[in-house]
Design a protein that fits this description.
The protein has 263 residues and is α+β, with helices and mostly antiparallel strands. A 12-stranded mixed sheet has the order 1-2-3-4-5-12-6-11-10-9-8-7, with helices on both faces. Strand 9 and strand 10 form a beta hairpin. The longest helix is centred in the middle third of the chain and has 15 residues.
C-alpha cells in the first residue's frame, strides 16, 4: 500500500497527540503533548484539522503536519515524521499537501518558523520556495520581584493598538490573543503589554512603550508566575533589549519563512 496521506480529522485528539509526540522524538526540541495540549494548540493557533495532514505507511501512522488558517494567511503549526520513517520524502509530501490545502482555501501566504540549527528542514523549505523574512528569538526570564500592574485586557489592547513595532508572528498575533483565555493586561507608566498565564509559566504576548516602561512590563509579568517566556521576538523589537536587561536568556533562535502561493 505504501505511504498514504489523510486529513488529520480522521484521528481523535488522543491519537493526534500521540502521533505529534512520536513525530518529534529526537528533534532538537522534543515535545510531549497530551490531548488537552493538542486542543489548546488547535484553538489558540487556529489549526484546521480538515486541512492538516497525517501520513500512514502500510496503515501505520508515521507523520503529521498541522496547518493554521487565518484568512489569506496560513501557518505550519508543527510537522514531523517518526524516526523509523525519516529521510524517505514523507516530510516533503506532507508539506506539499499542506500547500495544496491552503491554496484550495484561498490562502496567499504560508508562514513557518524553523530552528536555525535544523539545517536539514531549512534546506527542504528553501527547496519548496520559502523565503527568509527575519530571525526571531524565544526568550526566558526568571521570576522577578516587580510589582503587579494588571489592568483590564481591553485597556491594554487599546494602548497597544498604535504601537510602532515589527508585526507579531503567528503565536503572538492579535488573532491568537483573541483565542486565549486568562489573558492579563499590564499597564504601567509609558508602556503596556499582554500576558497569558499557563500553569506556573507566563507568556508575554505583546508589549510596547518606552525602555523603562517596557522593563516595568516585563517585571510585572515576571511577578505573575515562576518564569516569563516570550515567543519569537524580533531582535529589532525594543522588547528584545528589555528582556536581556531583565536577566533573560535566548533559549532558541528561529528563521521565520514565508511561501507566497501562486507566484
Amino acid at each position: 500500500m505504501g505511504v498514504e496521506l489523510q486529513s488529520a480529522a480522521s484521528l481523535s485528539d488522543d491519537e493526534l497527540a500521540d502521533l505529534f509526540t512520536a513525530a518529534y522524538e529526537g528533534y532538537l526540541v522534543p515535545m510531549t503533548i497530551t490531548a488537552e495540549t493538542y486542543r489548546f494548540l488547535a484553538r489558540a493557533y487556529d489549526l484546521d484539522r480538515e486541512a492538516s495532514r497525517i501520513a500512514l505507511d502500510d496503515g501505520a501512522r508515521v507523520g503529521l503536519a498541522n496547518l493554521g488558517l487565518r484568512g489569506r494567511d496560513a501557518w505550519v503549526g508543527g510537522i514531523g515524521v517518526v524516526p523509523s520513517a525519516r529521510r524517505r520524502g514523507i516530510g516533503r509530501a506532507l508539506m506539499e499537501a499542506l500547500h495544496a490545502e491552503a491554496a484550495a482555501r484561498g490562502v496567499e501566504r504560508v508562514w513557518l518558523e524553523v530552528i536555525v540549527e535544523n539545517t536539514q528542514a531549512l534546506a527542504l523549505y528553501e527547496d519548496l520556495g520559502y523565503e527568509h523574512v527575519r530571525d526571531v528569538e524565544v526568550w526566558s526570564v526568571p521570576r522577578g520581584s516587580g510589582r503587579s500592574a494588571t489592568a483590564p485586557t481591553a485597556e491594554a489592547r487599546r494602548a497597544l493598538a498604535g504601537r510602532d513595532t515589527p508585526p507579531e508572528p503567528w503565536q503572538r498575533a492579535d488573532a491568537t490573543v483573541d483565542n486565549l483565555d486568562d489573558v492579563v493586561g499590564i499597564v504601567v507608566e509609558g508602556a503596556s503589554g499582554l500576558a497569558h498565564r499557563s500553569g506556573s509559566a507566563v507568556y508575554l504576548l505583546q508589549a510596547a512603550g518606552t525602555p523603562q516602561g517596557l522593563r516595568d512590563v516585563v517585571d510585572a509579568a515576571a511577578s505573575l508566575g515562576e518564569s516569563v517566556v516570550a515567543l519569537n521576538v524580533d531582535p529589532a523589537e525594543p522588547l528584545a533589549d528589555t528582556l536581556a536587561s531583565a536577566g533573560g536568556r535566548i533559549a532558541t533562535t528561529k528563521h521565520e519563512l514565508v511561501l507566497p502561493l501562486g507566484s
